[in-house]
C-alpha cells in the first residue's frame, strides 16, 4: 500500500464515477455507486456486479478481508468524499453495474412473497421498503410506475446492503407488474387505508404480492381495483395513516408470520 | 380579512417565534412551533396548548373552519416561510406550549401499551415512532435518555399530528422509565436484535411497555437487562436488522393484535 499514490478528485476515473450522482448518467450507462462497507459487501456478492472499488488508504486496510478479491483503486479522502453523499463517508465506494432483472425473471421464480411499489418517491422510503422486504424474507421487489430510481445514492444507502440481496425489477407500468404476479398464481393485496379487509383478518398464508402506493396519495383507484383484495392496517388511535415504509413493514411481517406458521 | 395588513418577517412576534427553531430557546421558554394543518389541528384539540396561530391570508381562508376559534395572526408568505422548515409550507404554524407530562402521569394512567424510546436520535425516526404508536393504539410514549427533542420541527412534522394524540413524557434516565412501568405492572419488552425470544412466539397479551434503543447501537446491555424479556423480530432474509421506526411498527402492531384478539 505504501508505494501506491492515491488517486485525487480530479483523476479522470474518479470524475467519471462522480457523474453517476445524476440519474440520467446512471440510466444511460447502467452504472451506479454503492457507498459503505455493507453496500460494497452486497455488491461483491453478485458475480460481475462490481467494476471497481474506490477506497481510502485507511479503509483499504480496515476492510482488507472484504476487498481481498476486488479490483481496488486507492483514492484520497477528498476524492472518496466526492463519490459519497454521506455526511461521514466510510471510505469505500463500489462502482457497480445495474442489477435489476426483467420483470418476468423476478415473477417466474415462483415467489411466495413479492413486493410491488407503485410511485414510491422518497429515496429513504424506497430503501427502507427494500430492507424490510429482505428482512421479512420476500423473494423479490418491483419498483413500478414513477418510483424513485433504485440506484439513487440515498436509496442504496438506506437499503443497508439489501438492494443486493433480493431480485429487483423496474417496470414503468404498475398494472403490468400486478397482472404478471396474478398470472403466476400470486394473490395481489393492495395496501389501502380505505380497504375493506382488515390486515389481521385476511388470509395471508398463500403466495402473495403486496402492492404499495405513493407516500402522499396512496394507490390510484384504477390500480387498487386490479388487486384481488384491498387490505387496511387497523388504526386504533387517532392517527389517520401510517408512513409508507412503516405500513409495508406491518404488512410484510404479517405475511411472513402467516406463511411460516 | 381584506382590511388586515399581514405581519412581515421582521415583526417582533414573528422574530420571537422564529427563535424557536433553536432547541435551547424551545427548552427555556417551553414553547415550540407546530407546522401544517394536521399539527395545528392536533394542537388546537388540547386546551390551552396554542398561544397563537400564524397563517397566510390564503391559508386563513382555506382553513377557516379549523381556525374558527383560534387566535390567528395573519402573516405574509415570507414571514410564514421563516417559521416553517418545510420545503413547501402549508401556510399555518401554531405557536404552542410544551405538552409533555410528568412520567408518573403517563405511567399511572394504567396504560396497556406504552412506548419507551432510549436515545432515539433521528428526528424523523422519533416522529415516525410517535405516529405509529398512535396508530397502534398505544396509551403513551416516553422519550428517554439522550433522545432527540420531541419539539424538533422535523419530529413534530413527521408525527403528522400524533404528537398531540397521546400522552408524552420526557425522562433523562431510561432506567427510571423502565422501573416506573414495571412498578405499574407492565411487562417491559426490550426490542433487541440479539434477543432470545422471537416476537411471534412471545406472549404479548398483557399490559406491555416496549423499550426501543438507538438507531445505530441499539440498547446498551445494562438497560436491556432491566427489561423482563429481550425480544427479537425474526429476520428471514439476509438483512442484518431493521430500521428503528420499522422495527417499532412491527412490535407495536404485534402487541395491538395480541391485546385485541
TrEMBL record, chains A, B:
Superkingdom of the organism of origin = Bacteria
Annotated keywords:
Methyltransferase, Transferase
The record ties this protein, via SUPFAM superfamilies, to:
alpha/beta knot, L30e-like
Alphabetical list of InterPro entries matching this protein: Alpha/beta_knot_MTases, MRM3-like_sub_bind, Ribosomal_eL30-like_sf, rRNA_Methyltransferase, SpoU_MeTrfase, SpoU_subst-bd, tRNA_m1G_MTases_N
Keyword Chaperone (UniProt): no
GO cellular component entries: cytoplasm
> Per its UniProt record, what CDD domains does this chain match?
SpoU-like_rRNA-MTase (cd18095)
Gene Ontology BP annotations: methylation; RNA processing
Name a GO molecular-function annotation.
RNA binding
Where does the UniProt annotation place the signal sequence?
none
Query: RNA 2-O ribose methyltransferase substrate binding domain: from which residue to which, for each copy?
Result: 33-102
Read off the Pfam families from this record. MRM3-like_sub_bind (PF22435), SpoU_methylase (PF00588)
Concerning its family, UniProt says: Belongs to the class IV-like SAM-binding methyltransferase superfamily. RNA methyltransferase TrmH family.
Q: What is the protein name stated in its UniProt record?
A: RNA methyltransferase
- This protein's species is Nocardioides oleivorans
